[in-house]
């Protein structure tokens, strides 16, 4: 049976995942902004990964649209818009989907599936997370620059799609409870603002101890408030989250030897937040560090490090294009923590 898939919010992640599904035989429609749609319509897709894989998808193997017209024929809708656009995306589908259509949120942050479910109560709305990074190289070339899987909240409704994802090289990692995975991914995504403020590729940034110390401060603060809220994040790395936060602070040579796989990313890969700033788009900082600040307020714990990262990213959104060195950014975060402790 051919699965009909609509990708709502075709950016780097949505186009890569949808393109892989199209290569595996799905009927895919990409819904997104005209510049990217025009690009992939002209060039088709070339999908590569850090392990050497390469797949091409001719432009006649998929459809494109700027609005979700034809959504009533979709068997599966992948929502890959930025978190701030989740409500609008859900409303754009309202009244168009057949009852029982599976809608899978492949977004950062916590709770996007709930926003969608409130609007699309007749659909099977499930949470999911893409655990890898995708880089756009232009002319329809999208490159998976890090390891990772697609983690999803398990549901029988996924059974008809599971084999198709497997054939596409994107097997679904199904969880009875996805929340611990979402919180663990949020911990990893706290590097997004650090990377964006550095102006450096991910591998270059993570190879420098002071930037890792910045990430460690944000993660430790997040783990403190999660602990107060009795939230136990899943283990997504070789070490538990608390030990990984400690490992981040060791000297560069030790980190490379002990956690070398962390640095096994495409040399030009950057965080999605860095891409958003470069394109003049609003970032997802409120759904990353903002989640930690909100949780801290709920449990009565200060979160000055994550709050300062929010402030610096908001300043960057407003045109402050400075590139923070590791020592400069670390100084900002330590000063914020010290002032909060006074």
Description:
It is a single chain. The chain is 45% helix and 16% strand. The chain is built from 15 helices and 12 strands. It has helices spanning 12-23, 34-43, 86-93, 112-119, 159-167, 179-189, 191-198, 202-206, 209-228, 241-247, 252-258, 272-278, 289-299, 304-317, 326-341, and strands at residues 4-8, 27-31, 45-49, 54-57, 62-65, 76-79, 102-106, 124-130, 134-138, 141-144, 150-153, 172-175. Strands 5-2-1-6-7-8-11-12 form an 8-stranded mixed β-sheet, sandwiched between helices. A 4-stranded mixed β-sheet has the order 4-3-10-9. It is globular, with a radius of gyration of 20 Å.
Write down the overall mean pLDDT.
Answer: 95
Regarding quaternary structure, what we see is single chain
The number of distinct helices, counting runs of at least 4 residues, comes to 15
What's the Cα radius of gyration?
20 Å
C-alpha termini separation: 64 Å
């Amino acid at each position: 049976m051919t699965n009909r898939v609509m990708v709502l919010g075709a950016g780097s992640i949505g186009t890569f995942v949808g393109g892989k599904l199209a290569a595996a035989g799905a009927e895919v429609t990409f819904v997104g902004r005209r510049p990217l749609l025009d690009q992939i319509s002209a060039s088709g897709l070339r999908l590569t990964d850090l392990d050497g894989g390469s797949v091409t998808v001719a432009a006649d193997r998929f459809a494109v649209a700027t609005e979700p017209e034809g959504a009533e024929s979709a068997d599966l809708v992948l929502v890959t818009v930025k978190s701030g656009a989740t409500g609008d995306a859900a409303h754009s589908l309202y009244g168009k989907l057949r009852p029982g259509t599976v809608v899978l949120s492949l977004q950062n942050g916590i709770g996007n599936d709930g926003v969608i479910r409130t609007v699309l109560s007749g659909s099977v709305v499930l949470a999911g997370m893409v655990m890898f990074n995708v880089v756009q190289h232009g002319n329809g070339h999208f490159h998976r620059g890090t390891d990772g899987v697609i983690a999803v909240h398990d549901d029988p409704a996924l059974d008809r799609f599971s084999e198709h994802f497997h054939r596409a090289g994107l097997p679904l990692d199904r969880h009875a409870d996805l929340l611990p995975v979402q919180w663990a991914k949020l911990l990893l995504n706290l590097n997004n603002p650090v990377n964006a403020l550095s102006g450096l590729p991910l591998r270059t940034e993570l190879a420098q101890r002071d930037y890792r110390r910045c990430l460690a401060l944000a993660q430790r603060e997040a783990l403190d408030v999660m602990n107060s809220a009795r939230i136990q994040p899943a283990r997504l790395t070789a070490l538990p989250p608390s030990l990984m936060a400690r490992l981040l602070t060791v000297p560069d040579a030790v980190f490379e030897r002990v956690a070398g796989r962390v640095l096994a990313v495409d040399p030009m890969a950057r965080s999605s937040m860095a891409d958003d700033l470069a394109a003049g788009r609003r970032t997802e900082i409120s759904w990353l560090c903002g989640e930690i600040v909100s949780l801290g307020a709920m449990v009565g714990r200060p979160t000055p490090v994550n709050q300062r990262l929010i402030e610096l990213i908001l300043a960057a959104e407003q045109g402050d294009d400075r590139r923070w060195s590791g020592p400069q950014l670390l100084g900002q975060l330590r000063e914020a923590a010290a002032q909060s402790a006074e």
